[in-house]
Each structure stands twice: as C-alpha cells, then as structure tokens.
Design a protein that fits this description.
By secondary structure, this protein is α/β, with parallel strands linked by helices. It contains 9 helices and 8 strands. Strand 6, helix 6 and strand 7 form a beta-alpha-beta unit. The structure holds ligand LCLJCK34 and ligand 3NM. This is Thiamine-phosphate synthase.
C-alpha cells in the first residue's frame, strides 16, 4: 500500500519525534540523508523502522536499493541518477518502488518499468533542494494523474497538500512543511487531515 503522507527523515532531524508522528497518522517515512555513509544509512533506516513499526508506517530509503534490502525497509525511492526502476524491480521484486517523475510520460515509463508510485514535483518552490526545474504546480499533476499513484513533492504544506489531493494526487511528501515548522507534530496532524 502506498502511503499518503511521506515524511522525509535525515539524521539531523529530531528522531525522538518519529513515534509521535506515526501515531498521529504519518503513514510513510523516507530515509533521505545525503551526507550519511552507507553504514550510517543502514543504521538510520533501522532506527526509523524501529521507531514507527508499531504504528504500521511504511519506511522507504531514498536512492539506495541495497540499503533498503539490508535494513529491511519496505521500499526505495529512485531518481534519475539512481539504479533504474527496471533493474531495481528485477533484483527486489517485493520492494515498494517509487520513482521521481516530472511529467506524464515519465510516469508512464516508470509504470512500465515496474514502479509502484511516482514522486511528482517540484509542485511548488522548495528550500530543501537546489537544481530542480521550475515548479510546475497542480495543473501538471492533474494532467499526469491516472497512471500511477502520484506523491506530490516540493513546497508542500497542509493547504497545498489538500490542493494536491483535489488535483488527483494519492498523497504528498514533505520536508520543510513538517521539520521546519515551529511545532512539527502540529504540522504533521494538519498534513494528515489534509491528505485524509
Ligand atoms: C516522494 C519523492 N519524490 C521525489 C523525490 C526526489 O528523489 P530524487 O530524484 O532521487 O532526488 P533526491 O531526493 O535524491 O535528491 C523524493 N526523494 N521523494
Ligand atoms: C527532495 C526533493 N525532491 C524534489 C523533487 O521535485 O524532485 S522536491 C524535494 C524537496 C522537498 O522538500 P520540501 O518539502 O521542504 O519542499
């Protein structure tokens, strides 16, 4: 089952909050730590798993199929520089696989190659990542809807999460809309309500 609300987690976040976030209804956690070594990423993934497993939340690892398998994560999220979805599906038939997509054609290709969902963005301007294309908004998401479950990403807050759902998104993924809020748990609850 594809989560409706992915919270992206790195080792610099407040990991002690993870059980409360999962209890509040955050049903997906993506381990994304660009500065971690492979071993640190495996350990972080195990910590995240252990923090949220009693709430049945889904844990995926960004970029790394090997780490997802080694750490017992449910899935992996793959971008353009990562192992191709087709190869990941071949070596990991049971993993949940997400693929970054920027238009309807990429979503169709990801579906053909065996992805379970598409991370679709950037929908709005983001402070969390540079080098992205200009944000393309909810119209592009609506146009790409119907091939795979779409997870909207980029500048998502609770209001925008509701808009993304109305435009056809299955769910959303967030960094700043949760971790950079004055009270991340309150923000998480608002996001959970918005994607319900
Ligand atoms: C849900 C979701 N969508 C898109 C991305 C971006 O992944 P990627 O293209 O691999 O870029 P990095 O996250 O590695 O910078 C994502 N992580 N999650
Ligand atoms: C990691 C990432 N990937 C994106 C993409 O569009 O591929 S946008 C993004 C950052 C999302 O962070 P925030 O919720 O703070 O905007």
């Amino acid at each position: 089952m594809v989560p409706k609300l992915f919270c992206l987690v790195s080792s610099s976040d407040d990991l002690a909050l993870l059980p409360a976030l999962a209890e509040a209804g955050v049903d997906g956690f993506q381990v994304r730590d660009k500065s971690a070594t492979t071993r640190e990423l495996v350990e972080l993934t195990r910590v995240v798993r252990g923090s949220v497993e009693m709430y049945d939340a889904t844990v995926v690892v960004n970029d790394r199929v090997d780490v997802a398998l080694a750490a017992g994560a449910a899935g992996v999220h793959l971008g353009a520089d990562d192992l191709p979805v087709r190869e990941a599906r071949r070596i990991a038939p049971r993993l949940l696989i997400g693929a970054t997509c920027r238009d309807r054609e990429q979503v169709a290709a990801a579906a053909h190659d065996g992805a379970d969902y598409a991370g679709f963005g950037p929908l709005f301007a983001t402070q969390s990542k540079s080098g992205l294309p200009d944000p393309f908004g909810l119209g592009a998401l609506a146009a790409a809807h119907g091939v795979l479950p779409l997870i909207g990403i980029g500048g998502i807050d609770a209001v925008r999460a509701g808009g993304a759902r109305a435009a056809g998104a299955h769910g959303v993924a967030v960094i700043g809309g949760l971790w950079r809020q004055p009270d991340p748990l309150v923000a998480a609850k608002e996001l959970v309500t918005a994607v319900a």
